Amino acid sequence: MSLSFAIVGGGWYGCHIASSLRALGFGVTLFEQQKRLMHLASGNNQFRLHLGFHYPRHYGTRMQSREGFSRFVERYPGLSRPIAENIYAVPRGDSLIDFLTYKLIMTSSGIEFTELYDHPPMLANLEGCLLAPERVLLIDRARRYFAERLSGNLALGHRIESIRETADAVHIDGQRYDFMIDATWGHFTKPPIDLFYEPTLLLYYEANTEFPAITMVDGPLCSIYPTEDPGLYTLSSVPHTPLGRYTSGAEARAALDTLDPALIARKVELMEEQAMRYVPGFKEVFRYIGPQLSIKTKPVGSFDDRSCYVYKGGRVFSVMSGKIDTIFVAVERILSLIEAMPDEPPASDGGSLRQEVLRSAASMAAV
Ligand SMILES: Cc1cc2nc3c(=O)[nH]c(=O)nc-3n(C[C@H](O)[C@H](O)[C@H](O)COP(=O)(O)OP(=O)(O)OC[C@H]3O[C@@H](n4cnc5c(N)ncnc54)[C@H](O)[C@@H]3O)c2cc1C
């Protein structure tokens, strides 16, 4: 009999997990509280398909992204596209790492790049630059792709408030499932680790000309990244993007709902000032058009672990999401944890290895 799964949360993780389990023949229902998929963090981020360039400080995250990148492009070929010029730059003096060490970390991690010996004239204060083949995610297409693919499995506008677990099932709104997967990035049940919720602010800009993607690494720096929409970019800043640190998703949401417009205006000034240190002509090229607000769920710790983890308690799996291209880790871990669940031991046929060897030796001796 096929196993049945209730998946809570229709972001990148929930959609991919639902789609993968359905393809394996399992019964799947995906519950999403909003009326459309990818409404929260998955639809409000910098839309990078990471390859590991962003994580010189964390080996596991780099490895998950390096593997995930090629798997993502193979599995979802229409849901990302290349970027003509995607630059990772180490600023002189402001970075926590020097350019040679940065290159060495990427090379030793098997992450390929091309060094840019002369950095583009619009950039300044840099020690070194490289070109990365990372891509941009196409969020509008992703929403349509999963809405169509999962059309028979979706419960949109359905917020799960509580669940009832028994020894052999999980009951959600009176419906029985074999397992439940919480893919809400810690907003419904909390993964059993120390974590916090960080409301975030990115800024959207328009540019008339095509501009490269530029990411300054590593430390309290900033980045400019294109979106799927030609001429539309996000500006992100490590010191200015976070808007606080909360112990629950509800508190982080409340902080966003009551955000003072004066704070956003101040952040715009600070973020533009920071960007102009490395892109002196920033204000001539880019026109601010509005904020993007979101919430990150982060593990406590300053080593920047952005890997994906899955935890199991009884019949409930809790996914701690990593980056978007590490969705594959979640499915594999869920399947492996299910396979590791104790079955009824097989009935003994008395055929232990020792007995088999003795039987074989006895039959040889009898010849
Ligand atoms: C500012 C910012 C920039 C980022 N940039 C990048 C980037 O460039 N590249 C990258 O790979 N990653 C990036 N990330 C991380 C990325 O956004 C996350 O890894 C990813 O979106 C997590 O997906 P998810 O499906 O786990 O969570 P979400 O997208 O948050 O989805 C969870 C879903 O659960 C639903 N939900 C919650 N509670 C319930 C309930 N009780 N019942 C039903 N539904 C419920 C929510 O409505 C939501 O749709 C960024 C994140 C932020 C905030």
The hetero molecules present are: flavin-adenine dinucleotide
Helix-residue proportion = 25-40%
CATH architecture of the domain at 84-133 and 195-299: 2-Layer Sandwich
CATH superfamily of the domain at 84-133 and 195-299: D-Amino Acid Oxidase, subunit A, domain 2
The backbone outline, from C-alpha atoms, is globular
Briefly, what CATH class of the domain at 84-133 and 195-299? Alpha Beta
The number of helical elements comes to 9
How many strands, which pairing sense, and closed or not: the largest β-sheet? 8 strands, mixed
Task: Kindly describe this structure.
- The protein is α+β, with helices and mostly antiparallel strands and 367 residues long.
- It has a domain at 84-133 and 195-299: 2-Layer Sandwich (D-Amino Acid Oxidase, Chain A, domain 2).
- Helices cover 29% and strands 28% of the residues.
- The protein is built from 9 helices and 20 strands.
- The chain has helices at 12-23, 59-75, 99-108, 139-149, 249-257, 261-278, 282-285, 327-339, 353-366, and strands at residues 4-8, 27-32, 48-49, 80-82, 86-91, 114-116, 126-131, 135-137, 154-156, 164-165, 170-172, 175-177, 179-182, 195-207, 213-216, 222-226, 232-237, 286-299, 309-313, 316-320.
- The strands form 4 sheets. Strands 6-7-5-15-16-17-14-18 form an 8-stranded mixed β-sheet. A 6-stranded mixed β-sheet has the order 9-2-1-13-20-19, covered by helices on one side.
- Strand 10 (164-165) and strand 11 (170-172) form a beta hairpin.
- Helix 1 packs across helix 8.
- The longest helix has 18 residues, at 261-278.
- It starts with a strand and ends with a helix.
- The model has no long low-confidence stretch (mean pLDDT 95).
- It binds flavin-adenine dinucleotide.
- Flavin-adenine dinucleotide is lined by residues 8-14, 31-34, 39-42, 45-48, 50, 159-160, 183-185, 187-188, 200, 202, 294, 296, 321, 323-325.
